Amino acid sequence: MRIHSLLGLFLFASAAFPQHFEVSFAPTAHDGPITGRVFVAISKKDSPPLLHQIGSWTGQAPFFGVDVEQLAPGTPAAIDASVLGYPAKSLKDIPAGEYYVQALVNVYTRFARADGHTIWAHMDQWEGQHFNNSPGNLFSEVRRVRLDPGSNYIIKLEANQVIPPMQSPAATEWVKRVKIQSPMLSRFWGHPVYLGATVLLPKGYTEHPNERYPVIYSQGHFGLNAPLGFAPGNDFYKAWTADDFPRMIAVTWQHPTPYFDDSYAVNSANNGPYGDALLKELVPYLEEHFRMVREPWARLLTGGSTGGWESLALQLYHPDFFGGTWTFFPDPIDFRRYQLVNIYEDPNAFETPGYEFMVPERPMMRTAEGQMVQTMRQMNQLEEVLGSHGRSTQQFEAWEAVYGPAGEDGYPKPLWDKRTGKIDRAVANYMRDHGYDLAEYTKRNWEKMGPQLKGKLHLYCGDMDNFYLNLAVYLFEDYMKTTGAGATFDYGRPMKGHGWHPMNNAELVKMMAAQIAAMRPATRTPAPAVR
To answer: What is the pLDDT of residue 19?
Structure first.
């Protein structure tokens, strides 16, 4: 009887005082309630800064996250052993030892959208959807503590510091920056939404005030640096500023959404009319303010990865608006190879089909030598820890926000279950039927668009792309060979991974200038120093 009583007391104590963190925020840091997500980061080292050790695909510092709704200042949010983490799934999986710990609060904004849905998500603060570097988010001081899964502990952390505003780089004689409010996007989101651009001017731009120039639209992730890697003193700077270099303008766009650092430059159910806003608001603004040639032959595209998909999509969707694309290692352009997943036929995204026993885990990332770095299951665990309802601002959920439908709750409807990997065929079919599978879109519309694309498509992708993106490019090439469009493909064998380029940016600009010279109407004269 006494033994049972002691056991009961022990079990009561374990239940009453489990391992957990209590995270609150100070009223001096934020004076009202917060709806958002609270994180705790755990690491054996305090350098680099703890919050910058988490959130990446291959990050080794464990962290845990939980949603909060209208959390008041001083009121704690609990993160206990039931809360999912990454890469450790539970606090119970953290070995006993001394650790550095820190808390962060990701603050969400309420959006009453024009489609009738009201959602909460993080409003980008011009940092490119990096929650651990986003102005206005709160964080605590770093503490050194002992954690032990075999004992009970309560660790209290107060987020009493605020990430300061971003500082945009200053304009120079070569580089100018634009930021405008988009009426289209602001109406959709029920909140001010901004578009931006960084503009690289050619040599002699000021000295020739009556001259107009062709433009290169370089697509990619959010960033405020100059296009094409232009930086004082580097090789591209020396080429761009040389007397004999082609005179063109280069532009990068800034268009973060509440779901990612980039909208993919298309209209979508979840992100809203970004495609229309970019082409009907931002591009006309740029063409008016920076003396660009307003003709298709003078608008060229390039980009890699996310920017690769965008550059190809913009050329395919608007074949009579752009004069050619140099597309590098694009995100999946044929959804039969959504990385390694065939979203139309495979039952599960995490498991290789065709096996009954010893079912192989499906890789998500590899080295150029073929060593698996991360599985699909692990990547989706990371996304689930970073945010619920598709708010991780990571890759697979970014694609769901761009390509997929909105769910009944207003958030992106998942393509597959985040825990099991089971694919929702209705979502897959929506993505195809609404034109986001670029290969399928091209096949359906080739009779109409084909004549306008001859000689305009140039694709490059390493044969060992780290994310298996080359597989979809192979399928696209197979179809393009049947069209007579003169599309070019280069895979740079052997063992070329994600990010492979067959030429430097100066060589790329010269290739583009040669195409412009071939396409320019005879009545047009080239810009100064390009005659």
So the answer is: 85
What value, to the nearest 5°, has the Cα angle with vertex 279 and ends 274 and 285? 115
pLDDT band for position 9 (cuts 50, 70, 90): very low
Q: Which residue has the tokens 């104590």?
A: 13
Amino acid at 180: I
Cis preceding-peptide flag for 87 (omega within 30 of 0): yes
Instruction: Tell me which fold the domain 15-162 belongs to.
Output: Immunoglobulin-like (2.60.40)
Strands (E), 324-421: 325-330, 363-366, 372-375
Count other C-beta atoms under 10 Å from residue 287's C-beta.
17
pLDDT digits (tens, 9 = 90+) for 251-297: 999 999 999 999 999 999 999 999 999 999 999 999 999 999 999 99
Closest CA to 298 of 63, 46, 9, 530: 530
- Distance, CA of 528 to CA of 256 (rounded, Å): 36
Q: What whole-number distance in Å separates Cα of residue 12 and Cα of residue 308?
A: 57
Integer Cα distance of 409 and 318 in angstroms: 32
Beta partners for 194? 181
Instruction: Dig out the tokens for 237 from the structure.
Output: 């700077």
What CATH number is given for 175-334+437-519 in this structure?
3.40.50.1820
CA–CA distance, 229 with 338 (Å, rounded to integer) = 29
CB 498 within 8 A of CB 366: no
Whether pLDDT at 84 is above 70: yes
Q: What is the mean pLDDT of the chain?
A: 94
Q: What is the pLDDT of residue 526?
A: 61
Instruction: Reduce the DSSP state of residue 198 to 3 states and report it.
Output: strand
Q: Where are the domains of the chain?
A: 15-162, 175-334+437-519, 343-433
